[in-house]
Request: fold
Amino acid sequence: MLEWIRDIGARSIDSLGTLGRAFLFLLRVLIGLPALVLRPGLVIREIFSVGVLSLLIIVVSGLFVGMVLGLQGYNTLVDFGAEESLGVLVALSLVRELGPVVTALLFAGRAGSALSAEIGLMKATEQLSSMEMMAVDPERRVIGPRFLAGFLSMPLLAAIFTFLGIVGAYLIATGLLGVDGGAFWSQMQNKVDFYDDVLNGIIKSLVFGFVASWIAVFEGYDCMPTSEGVSRATTRTVVYTSLAVLGLDFILTALMFG
Amino acid sequence: MAQQSSADSSDVLVDIRGLHFARGRNKIFDGIDIQIRRGRVTAIMGPSGTGKTTLLRLIGGQLRPDAGQILVDGEDVHRLGRSALFRLRRRMGLLFQSGALFTDLTCFDNVAFPLREHTRLPAALIRHLVLMKLQAVGLRGARDLYPSQLSGGMARRVALARAIALDPTMVMYDEPFSGQDPISMGALVQLIRLLNDALGLTSVIVSHDVEETAAISDTIYVISEGKVVGSGDPQSLRDTESEWVRQFMGGLADGPVPFHYPAAPYETDLLGEAGSARAEGRG
Reply:
């Protein structure tokens, strides 16, 4: 019993310690970011590996999520004779929720885990340590560009996901289900508000991008420098990012639309 | 005494005084004094697990000692601010045991890395400097290879070229000879001495390869159980009174350092195991 209580105590101290390290780490990374203005090449290279290489999964998922939304939404709306509102339904779901959230979840699996593994392996093979001994700060040289690349890529990926989702739904609606294309677009244009819907969606994806990149680079940087440590770090990145994104999504939705 | 230390100070590049360091409850250094002189090759030797690598990290300022101080070129490493420490590190090269080359860069870019980070030299000049460093370690022809395409000895030589890229005053070698075949071992041994003399470096070698290290060092410190147990030039260490140092330098299996890790007597251990197994079987 006493052992059990002690164990709980040790675990909570441990996780609070990790949280503290994560915040201090974030602070140091943020302080180092402005210096990257002088070296945009570093960030652009990371945007390529974090953002551009994630495009395939984002494009395919976006199209399919949109097509499924179109099919499912039509089945319900047609009962009420409201199938012309399909465009609104699809656009609002994607812009407000599915675009930012699903993109963030895919991002965690595709780019976040890769970031953690890359940084963790650099740590395990002493590359970070040797960089430090060369008087180069790895937090600025390695972490900063990767964090910024993730943060910048997420809203762009979410926008692409949302756009393709709507295109997918349109193709299904007009091609398969016989919904009028004009009604699809005009209803969407009437009902989707720039500030309420689009801007809030962008804010969501910015927040998710920040959190997902933070978790990914921190887990990599903080991992045990062994192969087991790296594998744990990548798993934790995906799990924590997914949980954080879903939790934050609830809070943001409550604040924005509640 | 005071006079002596001031006379020393121009000659001594790294001055370690009363160094204490512990990892958790495990004491690694228990009051160590080491002086590393300019222009010399100093070896720090000892059995595996005596914290030789830790010592290099302490000198480089990556770890903090619990007590004592380390002066490098007159500056207390652990009292320096971050930027001053980074300025000091530019004058030190550390060759990691693994080489620690950046796996996503070619040999050329690895050696160019510190130059590109710390200087604003034009690309043509950087190219010349990198080729000169690679030539010095005999790997100019391997400049377009990636670290995964190199053998262990070659990787270490590329790492050495990178460590001297900024023309440091001191280079520290972490186990440079371990796991090398005889040819690359011979090449490294010669290279360390040659670079030290040709470039006017100060070299610190941490190693347990007695023969190779003794062949090229001017001074050797032998560390065991957190203390310096012997120091001097290689010859005087071989002739030392200390049995321990003789065992180490001669590579004898038994001596003051017993072959067996401390344990309960063999007989009782075997019988005790059988006894407890029987007890478990019954339970």
In short: Chain B has eleven helices and ten strands. Chain B touches chain A at residues 60, 62, 86-87, 89-90, 92-94, 96, 98, 100-103, 113-114, 117-118, 159, 162, 166 (CB under 8 Å). The first helix of chain B runs from residue 2 to 9. Confidence is low (pLDDT under 50) at residues 1-7 of chain B.
